[in-house]
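Shape matters. As here.
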Amino acid sequence: MMVDGKTWNDVKRIAIYGFGRQGKGYISQFENEFEITAIIDNGKNQEKFYREIPIVTLETYVSAFPKSLIIVTAAGKAYTEIRESLSVLGMIENIDYADADVFQMLRGWEKNRSINLGRLSIPITERCTLRCKNCITHMPYFSEPQDYRIQDLRDDFQRLFQMVDYIGCLNIVGGEPFLNHELYEVLDELDIEYKDQIGQIIIITNGTVLPDSKTMEKIASLDKVEVRISDYSQTIPYANRIEKLIDSFQEKRVRYTIEKFERWLYMGFPKDCISVSNTTDGIYEHMMECNGRCQFFSKGRYYYCSRQWAAEKAFGMELVSDDIVDLRVLNDFEMSKEVKKKKLLDYHLGRFTRGYCDYCNKCWGFDQGQEIKAAEQV
């Protein structure tokens, strides 16, 4: 991006819009490189400062703080609402404010042709302890769920980090990640081989499984690793298991956060035969409004969204070939490293040959999904 002769590479001062779990993660990524003038938060947060950075409302920021590029950390519908509020104030997207992922990626490319991702998810198992009827990744409907072996994951990591220079937040997901007893080796591999290319590792668990002592100690020993507990105890009576897990984490000094879910969004299943729009512009607008930041990487294949991966794995849906980047193939192409990386960069940013991801037309997404009760069981 370039405005008045200046590019994002010239940015020295920013403000962070959003103080949820994503916001805190981006602050950790950006604080050593930029002066963060303020954290904009319109919620019920009672804190006045975070790491000595003032927390203010948008109204206060606009009236009392020096103008900085605003980095919006929210995704999905929340980003759309923030964009609308900033547009009302006369601010222009990608000039006065920018999506955190877009800013990070395009600035890295502009600066030194590097691919810097805000976040990426890697599944290590298809097994889960719950059978959530409307699971966003369709876990109850996998016919033969499996754990992913460490050697296969090592191969995946090697392919990925040949192309990607840095990942701010690498999510280890499932299913239920603690069911894979090679999680210890996974963390060891990431720490030994790629720790300089990863800002933070988040293990996302539903809180039903107590990891073995070896895995627990490994997690506690790595400063970059945090466990995020998705708490569905408002629907499923297992609060005592979450409490037991938390007690163990506190005893072992494992870093963790808890996210309570009472509501989900129903985004649809392949059987629903969804068609969001019959025009290229309509599908593209839906894709951009969804803005889920749900990119997945599994078995050499880079997916624009976890829902693609789930539909393919659980229901055997055949995906349009252009909607997937297979790094096993891309790495073998006879072209420069820069050209290969640019292909992956464009894909991650949603720059498709046809103008949109085909699967987005088959999913209601975060912008059109309907609220439902979280974690109802099959």
About this structure: DSSP finds 13 helices and 18 strands in the chain. The two ends are 48 Å apart (CA to CA).
